Amino acid sequence: MIWNVMIFCGILTFATRFVMLSEVAPRELPRWMYDAMGFVPIAVLTAILVPNVLIMPEEGVTVSGNLRLPSAIVALSVAILTRSVMATIIIGIATLFCLDWFVF
Amino acid sequence: MLNQTQSIPLSAGQEFWRGVRQELPLMLGVVPFGMVFGVLGLASGLTALQTVLLSLIVFGGASQVVFVQLWATGVPPAVVGTSVSVVNLRHVLYSASIAQYFRTLPLVWRIPLAYLLTDEAYAVTITRLRNEEKSLYQHYHLLGTGITLWLCWQISTIIGVLFGATLPQSWPLDFVIPLTFIALVAPAIRQRADLVACISAAVISIVAQPLPWKSWIIVAAVGGIVAGYMTKFLTTNEVIK
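^ Those are the sequences you sent over. The predicted structure of the assembly is below.
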């Protein structure tokens, strides 16, 4: 099953990269499409990341006692300040480790 | 008066190696990301082979992370496919923007160039295409940037898989996924409309949780895009008035 989905996603990804290079594609994309597509990465990544941080399996939305939340906020500050993927990941995961260690 | 200096057009080899050289500095960000993906693939329950082949088949950082995250949480295949496609929509823009330069190439060129069209390769090659003189071999530049990124991505995924296998299972490595996304989203927020798109997607992703087939992902993504677009549309109209 996973192989089918992987290949399917591979074909879809290739298609998005190839579509405008094909003979059938229109020469120009409409303006609104450019504008709307600019929001795609922000919207999709946020939609996946927020529940990942806020929702605990079995428990639903959890704020108090959810150590991922403060860790994510620290990581967000690092991301805004440094704009570095590596620094954000390392400091974010280190914060989670430290909180885990202090709390339990 | 001569105001034009006669420049010698670059050869295929020169275009290719200039692409490679200009792409290399970006590998500072790509290699760690590839390694993170390798670790993440294993942490999300994929086998080493599946993780490495996902890099080969999909060859797109954010899409691969979305894939493993959704696959690991039992999201139905159709929703995984749709979400990966939505993440990939930006490639249509890249493809559109290089089309004027490469559309007349034969298919044997357009297919590999499309496969190699990633954020980082596009960014470097489009600068060359726009700012420098046209040449007969300018597609070799994209081949150079694309292959550089491709090699680094495959090798760093393999390193990540080897390294990930040595890390203790109890570590909360899956937390790397939201962290990666935070690192990608935060610098992308440059205007009010971006912030509106982000906050709308965040709110909808929580409120829409009860929807069937985990379709909240798609509903929240589309909601965020529409909210951002509307905001941009409304604010631009204000400026014109």
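Chain A has a mean pLDDT of 88. Helices of chain A lie at 2-18, 31-37, 40-54, 68-82, 85-103.

Shout if you want it in another format.
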